[in-house]
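Progress narrative, work stream C.
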Amino acid sequence: MDKGKAFEFKETDMKRNTRFDEILSKLPVDFKNEINEADKFLKSLRSLRFKRTIDKHGGKISYVASDYGFSYAFRVIHSEYSQEFNWYIVYNGKPETWHRRADYMEETLDEISKNKTKLSEYIFNSLIKCNNCHGERCLARTIYAFNGQKKLTCHGRVTLGIKNSDFECAREFIQHLSVLVERKIINGDPPPEKIILINTKRSL
């Protein structure tokens, strides 16, 4: 793909794009407008090169930056409206091969905290805590440290509501992530390494 392109649709045909519009047409106006704004915003981020996908049941719209293992998604099932982002796990193959990219959560939070401490704290506090549903051997358990605190999370997932302020928080986080990635690219840093989950520390 031409690296000058900011955004590449996985949904390349008219039928898929129409499906996106049809799903949005059934949503509350404010939620629909925010998703449209997010769609435009994510297209503009050259460094992350998001691809948009829709699950087969039409209940989740996802934007995936596969070079960095990052996903931003909207749950669009009635009564379950929400948005979330995380560094996702690749489950192909046997459990000992499951992996994710070395993520930039902590670096991004540190960058944000230089000017917007409340936002960085809000994002950190919105990380979903691990509730030990699969025990200590669960490969989705992810530890993050920020501002002297450590947190054991489920998938490293941040879940937010659908208020205007929630969308603003998500966009600001992703904007800071994009700037961080751009800086790494300019500096010639290697892409994030693949982390084999079975080798990670998963307890505080």
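Work stream C, second folded protein:
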Amino acid sequence: MKRILILIVLMLAGCGESTYTAKVEQQADSTKVIQHSETEDVFAQLSKAFIISEPEGRLLNNLKLITDQQAETIIGAYETKFVTGPALDPIGLPLNGLSSITNHQAETLGKVRYHPPKAAYYCTLYLNGLTSINEEQAKGLSKAESLELNGLTSITDEQAKSLGRVEDLYLNGLKSISDQQAESLSKVEYLNLNGLTSISDQQAESLSNRSFLELNGLATISNQQAENLSKIGSLVLNGLTSITDQQAESLGKAESLELNGLTSITDQQVESLSKVEYLYLNGLTSITDQQVESLSKVEYLYLNGLTSITDQQAESLNSGEGLEENIHQNNRYHLELNGLTSISNQQAEHLSKIGSLVLNGLTSITDQQAESLGKTGSLELEGLTSITDTQAQSLRKIPLGLVISDACYDVVSRYMKFGLTKASERKY
């Protein structure tokens, strides 16, 4: 009797398991059908679209899987349709929803370009949903001019060799790289490795010949690394919270330098960094008069962390005699002070001598300030909540362009027909 009961239980269990398995398989099949239907809808809309912009980009980015034929269809669309985006900034090819691709798809997608080519933009291929690729896929994707693979946490030396052919490469998911990989990636013109928390002196030397390098994951660097990295045209080290005087001396040789993680700095360090043409110190919340005097030598200066400045500092920061002289001499041309929520009339007058001035933190200005600011070469006031007709007439004198808040656009547009941009429509 016990044997019979056991057999019955086993048979029932088997039936239950079969039923469960069937349900799982049925659900999986249903999911595939839904995904297939959604994918077909995307390609139907893509074929009907006259241009490829944000709506089409969102549809592409939500795709979970595609066939080899569909990959070719996408590339065909990019070859025949105009690709654009916010403020005419093209969207690239966003396919971050894909978690895997075939070798053929890698080969196909790597060929994506804008047609006609856009001189100021790469056509970026976004594949941040991939967590691994094989050597053959790395070869195919290496044909892209700009590629994001931020989902990869490791790559092989062979893959690094292939990816080193990409001109603009994002591998921010990598936690470490070998010396051989650093050597291969040194061939990339614009390289982003923000996931690295440390590098060796040898790796810093290998990576030093780039036009652009981002290493925001580094919290510290050695003096030798600072010396090696200073050879890079544009260097981004926003993870550093402090530097030594010797490092500042080395980093001062870079053409463009971002150190937005620094919250304080010494006078000597500022003097060394003042040799940089494009300098970003947005983490500083205060500066001394001596530091401002040194920074007056920087042609493009970003100090968006400052919430206030003195009249004397404003005078030091202008470092020029107006727009024309700033253009023809190596004086201050661009200054960003977006942390300021108000300025004095005297500060406005001093800052008016700067060629390109960005004050997006201001919510209001006086008539006198508007008259002064109207003397700048170009001006950004995206934070203004209101403006008078008198102020608008003063700002219309700006020759090289005014970016104004949406709230004030209609008033200013009555007097300024050319060179005026609404903040929400600006092209970054």
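Residues 197 and 246 are 21 Å apart (CA to CA). No further action is required on this item.
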